[in-house]
Design brief:
With about 190 residues, the chain is an alpha+beta fold. The chain has helices spanning about 15-20, 30-35, 50-55, 60, 100-120, 160-165, 175-185; strands at about 65, 70-75, 85-90, 125-130, 145-150.
């Protein structure tokens, strides 16, 4: 490895190498997402589906925040913002129109509870809530329906996502799961 240059023509003057060190934000944990680690290789029900697998794990291991009768809340392993969670039916079903009336009601109720818990824990100012139906619509795991609940704050879009295509997450997933589970309305 070579020594950093002290060439004053490098941005940052005499210590240009220090300024250049900030030109990169390393996020090696994102490689698992880019490689597709943990994503199902097929859409059939079974052990390949992370939304079928998560409820069978411990809360900490599966990042499960709350279990209802027909649906559950789970943290997103690759969050857009701190506290980004998803509401999933236990049943492996791809399309919203295939949910039963009871499943629709519980997904809605858990979404409301998630919003309350996120406000209590993080003081979220607003939310993005939605589903991507089918891979063509952007669903990363199209075989198992899931509704995203993404907390938002005034000013949470800074230069990193706009310029660098990178999002900073301020809290470890395990800590976020613990806080949300403890604040979940009973």
């Amino acid at each position: 490895m070579s020594e950093p240059s002290s060439d004053s023509s490098v941005p940052g003057g005499e210590h240009g190498w220090q300024a250049a060190a900030w030109a990169r934000l390393w996020t090696p944990h994102r490689m698992a997402y880019l490689r597709g680690d943990g994503k199902p290789r097929h859409t059939d029900e079974g052990s390949e589906c992370p939304f079928c697998r998560a409820p069978n794990l411990s809360e900490d291991e599966g990042l499960v925040i709350h279990r209802g009768r027909l649906a559950f809340a789970v943290l997103n392993l690759y969050p857009y913002n701190s506290g980004h969670l998803m509401i999933c039916p236990f049943r492996h079903v791809a399309d919203y129109s295939d949910l039963t009336e009871d499943e629709v009601a519980e997904v809605g109720a858990l979404t409301q509870q998630a919003m309350r818990a996120l406000r209590a824990v993080s003081g979220a100012h607003g939310f993005n809530i939605g589903m991507n139906q089918g891979s063509i619509a952007g669903a990363g795991i199209a075989g198992h329906l899931h509704q995203h609940v993404v907390p938002r704050w005034g000013g949470d879009t800074n230069f990193l996502p706009v310029i660098a295509g990178t999002k900073t997450i301020a809290q470890l997933l395990e800590e976020t799961r613990r806080l949300l589970a403890s604040a979940w309305p009973q």
